[in-house]
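Our platform keeps sequence and structure together, in a single record for each protein. Such a record has a labelled line for the sequence and another for the backbone structure tokens. Nothing more is needed to write down the fold, since each code stands for a local backbone conformation. For reference, a complete record is included directly beneath this paragraph:
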Amino acid sequence: MTSHDDETRSWGIEPVPERLRVLGTLDVGLLWGNLGVSLLVVVAGAVLVPALSLPSALVAIAVGCLIGNLMLAAAAGIGAQARVPAMALMRAPLGRRGSYLPTTLNVIQTLGWTTFELLVIAAAAGALSEELFGFRATWVWTLVFGALALVLGLLGPVGVVRRLVRRVAVWAVPLALAYLTWWALEGADLGALWSRPGEGGLTTWQGIDLVVGVTVSWIPLAADYTRFARDGRSGFWGTGVGYLVPDAWLLALGVVIVLSRDIADPTALPAAVAAGGIVALLALLALTAGETDEAFANAYSAAVSLQNLVPELPLRLLVTATTGLGTAGALVLGLGSFEPFLFLLGSFFVPLFSVLLADWLASGRRYDGSAVLSAPAWRPGLLAAWVAGFAVYQWLSPTGPAWWVEQVERLDPPAWGVGATVPSFVVSFGLGLAAAALGRRAAPRVVGA
């Protein structure tokens, strides 16, 4: 392993120097393409039907993927330009201390998603081992894939691209997806499926909102990886195109599998695939193994986010701690025990991206990493814009644990059927742009020349 690899494995929140900016557009695209391949995305697509018809579901996927991936690409490009990780980047719009609140939320959500990913991986591996060998042993698979996630986390993003994605995932995962697509379409009457009406309960705009939510959940992690990109353009296009392709493919695959295989419960998808024969089993095995990088990414980003709070702690120690916590959580928690809370946290991050984009535009579309890290302690106007966007999101689409939803519904949210992502983004962006423009007249700039 080169000295550059050693440095990138343990690099903290300081701006990445030019010698370590080694990921080109193709490298970034391969990394995000691999992160986009997830059984959870298939399950998310399955949620769209039969409430929506097949044409409406595909429209929701197309529009939602374009919106969500444009947001994700922009966040990734800004992070690549500034050369600092995502939560350190939030010092620019919110201030040094202001960034601590989204950092705390992001640590909680990434630890939660690490646990959730390991639960899904272990459940799929258990279904496979039961089909092949007659035993499930879910706890063993949890430990195995938790250990694998730790190895990937200690390798770091550059090591993962060079040692895993380029050598194995770049050919194994597409082959698995191609087979599963063929399996889903085999024998299906596409004409009948196309003309079959939706059963209702979900509008196309709400479907778009769901698709956008699947994608933008990566926004508070994006810069953790693209800070090693060669430039902002590599970060933008590599992330946007790299994630868009598997994102749209797997969402559509989830829709088709539910309709063609008549699966009422989306969470039953892995078991249905496992029963499809030996080749289907091998394809599911490839996807299950590939899912480990989502667990790695969340645990790694939890560690990098913690460094925004305690930069003196070594990254490798934090990666070991966050992966260990996620693995322990997967051993003792169930799939449905904390998912609503994760969705509540997720509603913070669309308006968070809005204020980041607004401040970046007001700064002349340029961030310098060193200046970002030394931003003012607080930027109250942009903090208020962020909170306002979160409030709009929850008012239009109450999301979270039952007790929280009940409290929000007392405010009599309107039944507009347009979702919450776009209105939340617009409110935070408008308020954030105004606050950034006003604030920069009276405060030092946090941008480069």
About this structure: The chain has a mean pLDDT of 86. The CA atoms of residues 141 and 287 lie 15 Å apart. The longest helix spans residues 138-185. The radius of gyration is 21 Å.
